[in-house]
Amino acid sequence: MKPIIIVAAIALAAAAPAKKLLTPSDIVAAAPPGAWRTISPDDLLVMDLKNGGRVVIQLAPEFAPVHVANIKALARGSYWAGASIYRVQDNYVAQWGLNESDKPWPAGVTPKPPAEYTRPLKGLRIKPLGFPDPYAPGAGFVDGWPVAYSSRGGWADLTHCYGYVGVGRDLSPDTGTGGELYATIGHAPRHLDRNIAVVGRVIDGIDQLSSLPRGTEALGFYKDKAQNVPIADIRLASAMAPADRPSYEYMDTMSPTFAAYLRVRANRKDDFYIRPAGGVDLCNVQVPVRRKG
Amino acid sequence: MKPIIIVAAIALAAAAPAKKLLTPSDIVAAAPPGAWRTISPDDLLVMDLKNGGRVVIQLAPEFAPVHVANIKALARGSYWAGASIYRVQDNYVAQWGLNESDKPWPAGVTPKPPAEYTRPLKGLRIKPLGFPDPYAPGAGFVDGWPVAYSSRGGWADLTHCYGYVGVGRDLSPDTGTGGELYATIGHAPRHLDRNIAVVGRVIDGIDQLSSLPRGTEALGFYKDKAQNVPIADIRLASAMAPADRPSYEYMDTMSPTFAAYLRVRANRKDDFYIRPAGGVDLCNVQVPVRRKG
Questions:
Q1: ipTM
Q2: What confidence score (pLDDT) does residue A11 get?
Q3: What phi and psi, each to the nearest 5 degrees, are found at residue B247?
Q4: Which one, A93, A230, A235, B74, has least CB within 10 Å?
Q5: What are the pLDDT digits (tens) for B77-135?
């Protein structure tokens, strides 16, 4: 067996009883309870597929409040009844909703939300990445989220990392209501940052999207609608019976544990590594999120 | 329909007859014949799966000559008869070969190749990326390949971008002969750069790997060997009958066309985009490669 990377702890040989060099997973496993923050069930969108798969999305109301309020209203109003995953483009996105539907919006939906593609930097506490970012003057973490920002411009944006969720739109910026969502399933398409509303991230079940057959039409749309992957239900965890609700927590990005995790992400020195990188890009840091209980 | 990105040319409305803003695809489509370089059939590894899928890999002998010579000897010696894809880890790699086999190496294989994780910078003509790279002092392109480099250190390495192929190894650096290969299927795991021999890239059929079910064992190994995806044949294009050989070409990264492509990759101004990024990371540039004839 030739695993190409060891993510779990490795027992050191007896001949080398010296200091154990930690992996990122070691640091996450040893994190104290105080390093974790519970995600509100009102910010968890639970998508169940008819094939039995489940995809759980953490919403980010602090970055796109009107779009996220729309998504919650769509879930509460059962807008997605009959929806499906209808587009899977390799190294790019999987997209779902009621494509080309004229279904009316449920109560509480703002049909033309403002272009929440950035938010004011003011008031945000940022843990800096500490390495250059080719897409923005600054990069770091705010309350568990990866962000790019400009101190001079006064803006911050939630970035398109792997598994992040955005609102599909047409060419005009006021055309994305929230009914059509996509998740990124390849190398982070950061050129979309500041051009689309990013509303959250898949925290469980991304493989239910990333392993789907790729669509063969332009942009990865499925050619035959029979290829569409039917969605059984999309609802907020807060609308589920308490006993059925999944619960998750994310690592506090201002915690000393996260600082240690970030250092090791940029400098892998565990047994497999010969030359630590001495740097890391924003989307390879992957803020730890785990199921509770 | 709400496509989230337009990759093809968009016809401008009659009301806006001004200068057409090019997409990266427009530039590739209009590239003159002189901007392309044919890939030698001796550097094309053709992997046919028993399910009918085909994966074509361009080998990079200039970066890992002994490892690539091994791979060619393994193909010529039919080493991979009975091989399969046995590991698929989400946002990471798909890996194939004869896992845990004691099969003897065919003629011409160096069982313990040198650690070709970097190569001398001297003699390389580099087209610089022009934006900071968090993983190395420099980043750019050499003869169609993305590279990281250090002028001070005098080294360059082929980087782990999406679809790039490396040689699986155990903890010790002299354990990767070339029999077990992986391709990256998620956000570029650049922390592996300079720690593994990168031997090429998938130039056709990456979706045959990226859309496979993820393995549920540690590191994405398939739990049940019945889940392994059998490989029908792995051979060099040069060993195929001329009429059956696929042929490909890549864009010359020193050409003016590539320079224009790189500029637009960093500054999308076509109709969908509101705010061009003003930068791009190495792995989002994606050197154009296309089938010939």
A1: 0.93
A2: 32
A3: -130, 140
A4: A230
A5: 999 999 999 999 999 999 999 998 889 999 999 999 999 999 999 999 999 999 999 99
User: Cα dist. B31→A114, B111, B146, B251, B261 in Å?
Assistant: 39, 43, 20, 9, 10
- State the burial class of residue B41 (Cβ atoms within 10 Å of its Cβ: 0-12, 13-18, 19+): middle
The pLDDT of residue A17: 42
A60-81, pLDDT tens digit by residue?
Answer: 999 999 999 999 999 999 999 9
A277/B193 Cβ within 8 A: yes
**Torsion of Cα atoms, B2 then B3 then B8 then B14, to 10°:** 20
Helix (H) or strand (E) holding A48: strand A44-49
Residue B145 bridge partners (DSSP): B142
Whether pTM exceeds 0.90 = yes
Cβ within 8 Å of residue B104, ≥6 positions away? none
Q: Cβ of B188 and A186 within 8 Å?
A: no
Residue B99 with chain A: CB contacts under 8 Å: 1-2
DSSP code per residue over A101-112? --PPPPTT--SS
Answer whether B191's CB lies under 8 Å from B157's CB. no
- Among B207, B221, B284, select the one facing A191 at the smallest CB separation: B284
Per-residue tokens: A244:
């059925």
Other C-beta atoms closer than 10 Å to the C-beta of B54 total: 14
